[in-house]
Amino acid sequence: MEIILILSVILAMILLYACLEQHTLILKKQEIKLTHLPEEWDGLKVLQISDLHHRKFGKGNRRIIELAAQQKPDWIVITGDLVSRDFRPEKELAEMWAFLTGLRKIASVYLCLGNHELDMIRNEVFQPVKKVIEETGCRLLDNEKIYFQRDGAEICLAGASLKFNVYRDENWRFRNLQDYTIFEMIEDLGDKETFTLMLAHNPLMMETYTLWGADLVLCGHVHGGVVRLPGLGGLLSPERRFFPRYDLGLYQNRATYMYVSGGLGKLRLFNPPEINLLYLKSVNKK
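and the corresponding structure tokens:
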């Protein structure tokens, strides 16, 4: 009886913590040293937001906006799943407008598609979201590359949309997922030409990003593994795979770096919602 009481108290404490944690918002900072980043771009500050889904941090997500503004980023990037597939325009469009408008006042905002947006495109219900993105002055990179110049040095920002069947199979299950091959990536984005920062929702395609030659890839999707276990990392991926290889933080595969944000939305435990400030450093800086 005493053991049952103790276990009940522990469970109640975990549930209380989980409820409080959903509304916590933290900022993680990461310096990333990059061999091919031109020295003219040394110190570029990129604020990453990912996997907001239905989560709200104040009206119009003002808590995110205020925290982002304090960092004074050069760019703000949203790496997919800004909304969920059951998006309700009559209730959520105004909130989304306020959020993106607030971010756009801080810095230029760039987005890539996540699996929820791909599902909305597939079901032909994405148009209202796309319209708000455009009308707020943000830029959706749907298998697109854009180029920036600073003191004669060029870098590229790319958005890889991937494809729906890397997330779900034809039966809406996770059993027969397809790879995203280097040939598909070249067809979607062309060849890599200069230093490239890539936005790509899914970190599980790391090998393809490496083969393509991306210098730095920013991802989300895995939600930090949902539950974070000490010494073990994230427990579960959205594909229902235990202990996913890429769940949170910075990874390197040969010359390619990848940073995976734990994101903001969905149920989580010992895994508080986060946004990420990335300092890009050139190893060529004298």
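(Above: one complete record from the training split.) The two ends are 68 Å apart (CA to CA).
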